[in-house]
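HUMAN: I'm a chemist; might I ask for a sequence paired with its structure tokens?

ASSISTANT:
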Amino acid sequence: MSGIIYVVGIGPGDRDHMTFKACEVLKKVDVIIGYGTYIELIEDLIEGKEIINSGMTKEIERARQSVKIALEGKEVAVISSGDPGVYGMAGIVLELAQDLVPVEIIPGVTAATAVAAALGAPLMHDFAVISLSDLLTPWHKIMTRLEAASLGDMVIVLYNPKSRGRIKNIETAREIILWHRDPQTPVGLVRNAKRGDEEVVITTLKDMLSHQIDMLTTVIVGNSETSIEKGKIITPRGYQKKQNYSKAQEV
């Protein structure tokens, strides 16, 4: 009899932002598999468990291990930061598990929404989430997506904006967005979102590169209607326009 694989989103890192369901699953499974850094974030929840950790770029290996262990009849949790279905482990686990073992996805708070909460309400209208990592996606595709989102006046969330090996990607991304957006467009930079030592910067598209940006930073670029009000970034949903329209109809 086979076990089960849970693909668990542990949220941005702070325990207060992990779901009850995620905690419950982590406490009951036999084996925990994950990237070493994420394992460290939940050490107190998984004492006494069998732990299998590995480094970056080992996603396929972790997924294969989870299937093998589940086939032995054990319950295994494969963890991802944020939500496992957003640049996480859910996809590759489902691909490899197929009909071999059951898989349950446990959602979590993803970086986009964690960062948005720190900044105010920048995601109140349509938005696009784009990773600037070209490790698995060709850079020309990323540039096309950046231009499409910019042309469509969507709020843009940038994951993996900069690393030691990818210094120029964020610069090129900013340049592409500037083709279609005002330099004074509000931009929010949040580092270590909801991890206790959170750093929040509110700036503009023009000045964003003068601030620290790294792999622990998530960037949100506003649209043409986004504004900064009392130290918070707000993208209007359109309620005010609807209200004004209704009043005009009454007249």
